[in-house]
Amino acid sequence: MANAVAHHDHDSEVGANIYGLIAEFDDPDALVAAARTATQAGYRHVEGYSPFPIHGLAEALDFKDWRLPKIAFFGGVTGMALGFIGLWYTNVIDYPWNVGGKPLFSWPQFIPIAYECTILFAAGAAFLSQWLLNGYPRPHHPIFNARNFDRASQDRFFLFIETTDPQYDSIGTANFLSELHGVLHVSEVEKD
Amino acid sequence: MASTPTTETEERAVVERRGPVRERFIDNEHSYSSLTDIIGEVVLSPRPPIVWFIVFGISFVFVNVFLMAVTWLLVRGTGTWGNNQPVAWAWDIINFVWWIGIGHAGTLISAILLLFRQQWRNSINRFAEAMTIFAVICAGMYPLLHTGRPWCDYWLFPYPNILGMWPQFRSPLCWDVFAVSTYFTVSLLFWFLGLVPDIAALRDRSTHPFARFAYGLASLGWRGSARHWYRYEQCYTILAGLSAPLVLSVHTIVSFDFAVGIVPGWHTTIFPPYFVAGAVFAGFAMVLTFGIPLLKVYPKLKDFITLKHMDWMGRVTLATGLIVFYGYILEMFYGWYSANTYERALVMNRLFGPYAPFYYALIFCNGIAPQALWHPKLRRNIPFLWILSLIIGVGMWLERFVIIPMSLSTDFLPSSWAYYEPTIWDWALFLGTMGLFTFLFFLFIKFLPMINIFEMRELLHQIHEYEHGHNGHGGNGHHGNGHSGNGHSGAVTADATPAQPNPETLEGGH
Asked: Which of A164, B240, B445, B484 lies in the 20 to 30 Å Cα band around B71?
């Protein structure tokens, strides 16, 4: 866009305190397209920010991670095993209850609790791993220094390229970002 | 973003193009920021409306009634309640089952409708989930208190103890402990997970330093990055997938409390599905009972909870109500078909016994009254829906009354038969839990967004995609059933929607 302004002229010659460059959009589809362009242009340390999950954005950033479902699955298996073995140990081995003359190991009656434990552990594992894999809780983060970033949780969409990117160049990357389709504004993000 | 129309004809073209879609999910022109504005305003405005204070004040009075009832119960014991042999289970279990059933609609809306990609749930799932949590809190009070010594409630859980004993895990009552506590925990996790991005939006929007701090803390520092959303959605879907079988299992297990017993009227295989359907039925009624007055207090939210939502909630209520009614018919059938003296006696007792008026009231409330929902105009008539939701709430309570004290008061030995009556403390505790529920709910709508903002943005994005005809997939779920909006009672503004959606203009875009 013609009116996009690159804002990298103040005291950024050293670049030591710079976290990266951020481009602002007001359209989710423009962000996805921009993310795809950045990835195709060879940028690796790219991140998109949006006020709601956008399908295709993670794919545009070449991001895939299937650890969470696996952790949840193992959580569920653990819960089921714990539940079932726990019932067996408590009601068959350690304290054999004779209820109505049923066999001690009347396993169908252990299913409901084992089932609930499966769900409890799977849900707990999914919930906890979501926060831990995403690195939360983390109340402070340099990205919050970005211009207008308050709106990232409301109605604006951001594409961020970190200085650690091997292809990062304070002027070249800024030009690259400001030439993206639909960009409103490009600015530097300070580390603190 | 949709460009704003300039001339009147263009405007009419926009209305014609997006009318049917918008009529269902989001009314009037909205952008991502206006969604946040309107929903966030309920929380961030310094003074809630006066009605909020009135309802909150009344519910606070009943919270105190609740505390008084609990105190008296702890001082004097469960003898203050009306239950005694042979009716050992009465209001404690009726109200437990009633409350926990009410919670089920929240999980159904948030989890099962999510898995079926029913986007209309996006505007009602948050407060329905909150109702789940508060209803389970109220439900949980009863089993915890009816032990008589709630300070010993940890005995319900298996823990290595000095007595060398373990709970008897072949009993459905022990299953209940796991089912209800798992249900509460998973519902809470799911609710919190959904809240975090919205809390982050409030953090970024609020101006008061304390609000910024508190919401900032509760948001855990959510930044909304693409990688985070990716795992977030994985987690959200997994929790939904786990909640769906969970909600079915909870009321199934609750029904086992009865079905495993040999008491006449309890020992039937219809109980699990009939209980689950009854739970959803009661829960949707409760969502309407609270949702309709909320729209009166916060009229701006009518853009998001439209007549279409009312209509569809009415349909779910009708469908589950029919299953419940089928259950009542089959109960009668079992009485005859079992050829069991006691089962038959129970049926006669229901029809002609001392509690017969309750049974007929039940059939009216849950069997007859919901049939009105077949009529589309009545499904869109807000005052009618509200009154019907109250009738259903009463009906579902009566159902548990018919099942529990009616069966127990006339057991196998005529010499031990007894008439059951609740005491004033039964009433106090029940009204007290209603007060507690309302109290918690009104705290919730003051401090947390009652509509899921980020999912509404997602919905808006999908609607835009659909309207612009970017691709055929954006409109999934918006298709089907082009019901016209002609029966509107004026509760929703901008009603100039065409009678039928024109698929050509919808797909063709502009």
From this structure: B445
What confidence tens digit (pLDDT) does each residue in A26-77 have?
888 999 999 999 999 888 899 999 999 998 899 988 888 999 999 999 999 9
Residues of B with CB below 8 A from A120's CB?
A: 178, 182, 185-186
Residue ranges covered by each domain of chain A: 6-64+144-190, 67-133
With an 8 Å Cβ cutoff, are A127 and B193 in contact? yes
Does the domain formed by A6-64+144-190 have CATH 3.30.70? yes
User: CB–CB of A186/A21 below 8 Å?
Assistant: yes
**CATH for the stretch B84-146+153-158+166-421:** 1.20.1630.10
> Is A77 an interface residue toward B (CB < 8 Å)?
no
∠B410-B412-B413 over CA atoms, to 5°? 85
Q: What are the sequence ranges of the domains in chain B?
A: 84-146+153-158+166-421
- Which tens digits make up the pLDDT trace of B316-344? 999 999 999 999 999 899 888 988 889 99
Q: Which two tokens stand for residue B399?
A: 């159902």
Left (φ > 0), alpha (ψ -120 to 50) or beta: where does A18 sit?
Answer: beta
Would you call B222 and A109 a contact, using CB atoms and an 8 Å cutoff?
no
Which of the four pLDDT bands, split at 50, 70 and 90, describes residue B24?
low
By CB atoms closer than 10 A (0-12, 13-18, 19+), residue B162 is: exposed
Tokens of residue A181, six digits: 């389709």
Give residues 119 to 178 of A whose Cβ lies within 8 Å of B: 119-120, 122-124, 126-127, 129-131, 133-134, 136-141, 143-144, 150-155
B441 with B16: CB under 8 angstroms?
Answer: no
- The residues, any chain, with a CB within 8 Å of residue B219's CB and separated by 6 or more, are B196, B197, B199, B200, B202, B203
* Greater pLDDT, B3 or B64: B64
Please give, rounded to a whole number of angstroms, the shortest distance from the CA of B165 to a CA of chain A.
6
